[in-house]
Q: What sequence folds into this?
């Protein structure tokens, strides 16, 4: 079976097969989301030593519908010796797909 998302969201797919006395069934949850996209800055953030820059993203994965408590944000830096990363949650964007 091939499926293609037409919108962001999730669905449960159930497939069953029976032949004679044999009955097989399988269930899977499928999730689709818009790709993660940088909003501010659009591509590169240049900061000087001792300064900071808040960055805004939209899209990307949302908490998993079957286990939302295990959702996490993972930030990494190319050169961890020269940069500190912090996740800042803005109440203005809590119900919107912005990070």
A:
């Amino acid at each position: 079976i091939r499926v293609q998302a037409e919108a962001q969201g999730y669905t449960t797919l159930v497939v069953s097969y029976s032949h004679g006395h044999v009955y097989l069934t399988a269930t899977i949850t499928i999730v689709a989301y818009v790709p993660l996209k940088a909003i501010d800055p659009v591509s590169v953030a240049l900061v000087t030593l001792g300064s900071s820059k808040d960055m805004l993203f939209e899209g990307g994965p949302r908490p998993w519908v079957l286990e939302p408590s295990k959702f996490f944000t993972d930030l990494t830096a190319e050169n961890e010796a020269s940069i500190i990363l912090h996740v800042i949650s803005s109440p203005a964007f809590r119900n919107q797909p912005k990070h």
